[in-house]
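Figure 6 in text form: structure in, sequence out.
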């Protein structure tokens, strides 16, 4: 049965669901044409090679078929999507007091400036298609760490570094929405951590999509050089509308020899959003990538972070949770490619579904012929809160050497009536008891997050659990 809805009722998301009129913003026309791409490129003051890249990507998009193997995205009509919205500010700011008042209020209500003051080494804030604020602590900059918006880096002294890395891990030919991203990308962050630098406090970017019927296409490019360490956090949210919105961002992570990168994200899109995001990491000898992923909200998601273990002894850890409620079809998972000897990967995920929501976990582990001595373990657990919901696990393993140790484990269950009864006997309501059990089920993710993000995730679980009784 085909799903055409672009809007569903949801719990009380008022903390995230405020919005401001975008009457002062600048927009391109909806749809996709070469003229619109040129218009975006002019707005961005792109170098000539980037305009050529955008137009080539648009051509690839037009020639590439829509995916036909996951949830239906029939309700997404690119002719109706506005691909570039500039908020009512002419430039990016480094002083929070200079940000326009309505935009500043948005991020104040989401707690971004407070987080920066209390627990972050640097913050970038994107509103619709533009970075409106970017700042980094002096002591971090003095380590040689570069943390800026991608567009400034592209036009400035880091232009060669951007050109040699941009969409090299995720080429436009990869899939239709990678090509779309290559054509219309806007905003995003660039991070470079020099050899040996240890960034002890996280950096954060936050993305807010305010405009109805629009798309957000930010590009995050992170390079962690030899022996360096970084924790990078991304958060995102949007108010709900009764028209489709689209998120098709791209994240490219380059982890150098003996370097470590932890990439944490809480995706909290409203339930009229099509979330078609692409994330990929390449890890060199002795390096490590750690993914911590929380997927909430959105009408439909296609989200499969991929790790390419390119050097001997490279490692990957992926920890994720997905929560699918009424009207949601969330297709998430991850992929790991072992391309070198003695590499290892560990995948541990939780998926929760309620009120007819559909949660699908897809994993793919590839161990190539030269990756002898490699190890991989995949564990996924699913919790269904009622008889209407659905949870599927679709593992794929492609093992091309007999000198590898690979395992997969999957469990699907429901909330124990005995556990609910026990908690209710201790004074909790049925709703509170079930929410507590679900939070415990998702603890493997929340315990890996900084405190304020763990609190946000548990708050999202409580919101989703409203009305889940029955």
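Output sequence:
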């Amino acid at each position: 049965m085909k799903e055409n809805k672009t809007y569903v009722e949801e719990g009380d998301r008022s903390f995230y669901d405020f919005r401001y009129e975008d009457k002062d913003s600048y927009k391109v026309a909806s749809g996709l044409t070469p003229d619109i791409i040129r218009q975006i490129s002019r707005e961005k003051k792109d170098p000539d090679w980037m305009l050529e890249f955008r137009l080539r990507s648009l051509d690839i998009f037009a020639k590439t078929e829509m995916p036909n193997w996951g949830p239906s995205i029939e309700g997404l009509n690119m002719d109706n999507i506005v691909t570039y919205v500039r908020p009512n500010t002419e430039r990016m700011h480094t002083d929070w007091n200079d940000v326009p008042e309505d935009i500043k209020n948005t991020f104040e209500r989401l707690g971004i400036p407070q987080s920066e003051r209390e627990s972050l080494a640097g913050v970038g804030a994107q509103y619709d298609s533009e970075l409106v604020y970017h700042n980094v602590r002096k002591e971090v900059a003095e380590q040689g760490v570069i943390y800026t918006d991608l567009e400034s880096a592209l036009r400035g002294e880091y232009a060669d570094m951007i050109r040699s890395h941009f969409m090299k891990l995720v080429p436009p030919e990869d899939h239709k929405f990678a090509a779309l991203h290559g054509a219309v990308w806007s905003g995003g962050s660039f991070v470079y951590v020099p050899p040996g630098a240890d960034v002890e406090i996280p950096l954060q970017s936050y993305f807010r999509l305010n405009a109805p019927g629009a798309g957000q296409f930010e590009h995050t490019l992170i390079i962690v050089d030899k022996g360096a360490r970084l924790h990078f956090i991304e958060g995102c949210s949007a108010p709900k509308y009764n028209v489709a919105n689209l998120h098709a961002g791209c994240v490219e992570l380059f982890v150098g020899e003996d370097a470590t990168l932890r990439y944490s994200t809480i995706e909290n899109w409203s339930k009229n959003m099509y979330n078609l995001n692409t994330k990929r990491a390449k890890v060199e000898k002795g390096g490590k990538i750690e993914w911590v992923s929380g997927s909430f909200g959105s009408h439909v998601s296609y989200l499969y972070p991929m790790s390419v273990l390119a050097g001997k002894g490279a490692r990957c850890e992926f920890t994720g949770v997905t929560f699918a409620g009424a009207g949601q079809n969330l297709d998430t998972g991850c992929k790991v490619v072992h391309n070198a000897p003695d590499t290892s990967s560990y995948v541990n995920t939780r998926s929760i579904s309620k009120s007819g929501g559909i949660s699908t976990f897809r994993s793919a582990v590839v161990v190539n012929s030269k990756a002898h001595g490699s190890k991989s373990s995949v564990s996924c657990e699913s919790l269904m809160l009622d008889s209407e919901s659905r949870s599927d696990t679709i593992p794929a393993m492609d093992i091309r050497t007999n000198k590898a140790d690979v395992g997969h484990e999957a469990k699907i269950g429901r909330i124990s009536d005995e556990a609910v009864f026990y908690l209710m006997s201790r004074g909790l309501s049925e709703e509170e008891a079930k929410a507590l059990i679900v939070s415990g089920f998702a603890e493997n993710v929340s315990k890996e997050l900084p405190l304020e993000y763990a609190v946000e995730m548990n708050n999202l679980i409580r919101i989703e659990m409203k009305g889940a009784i029955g």
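Caption detail: Residues 14-303 form one domain.
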